Amino acid sequence: MKLQRCAMIDNRVIQVQEHNDGVNVWRTARVLPSRELNDEIYGYSDYWERTGGFTTRRELPHAEGVLIVNLGAPIAITGGNGGVLRLQTGEAFAAGAHLRPALSHSEGTQAGMHVFLPLATLRRLLGTPMDRLVDRVVPLNALLGAEARDLGAKLCEAKDRDDRVALLDAALARRLATTAPLAPQQRHALHLLRTRPGRDISEIARDIGWSGKHLASRVKDAIGIGPRCFRRLLRFQTLTTMIGRHAGAPDWAGLALDAGYCDQPHMVREFREFSGMTPGVYRARSLPDGGGLVEA
Predict the structure, then answer these.
(1) Side-by-side strand order, sheet with 75-78
(2) Residue 15 has what pLDDT?
(3) How far apart are CA 109 and CA 263, in angstroms?
(4) Which of 23, 122, 266, 288 makes a 20 to 30 Å CA pair with 220?
């Protein structure tokens, strides 16, 4: 594995991860968005891979939005609801909050651009109530029409990663300029739910000046799920991140408490619910160097 940090593209830090075990090869480059997009987009991943050892990954639920443009061979995505979406070169998909695992299938090679963004930003970009996207993957052209097709074609024609990043920056900035941001109270509610995991939800509602029912309605409008479910996804996302960074034999009880679970049995129950496996099986099936989770 080769890891490079802090190379520069247009004054933006980029992280490159490369893996080659003689059977599976992949390369991913993480790029920050333009400053104009910093409040709405986390960043991008420009990726390419050739896998001889597997063709399917299990994608676990998490608390963020998904927007991916396929720039390689055809791929297929199975959403948490079991629906299958097939994408040709230049086609894109979006996915809302998932409470069940999804599957990504390739023909052994794939390439593309992954936009990392909050669910609330995805709602702005799509102009669609996010509860319609729970456990679903949808083709971007079904939501944005010619705008999505034009972006896909331009990304396919781009000469290099710098051009692809610039195209995404411009397209996302144009789209966000035409849509209204979240109401300040909605944004504040999501911020508190994300950053104050120990705070009672009813207290958050009172601080904002809302009833608990109105808070649940506004949160669901913004991200597709209610505040309690959002917190559970955030906790699960925290745990999977911690497991991925943990070297050596895990202290499962300690990880459970650090991630915000009551105890280890609580963690295992919720892990099974969201992933369909135990934390130990997840760790055993995780690929190295940011490769994801191989499907058995």
Answers:
(1) 56-59, 102-105, 75-78, 84-87
(2) 86
(3) 41
(4) 266
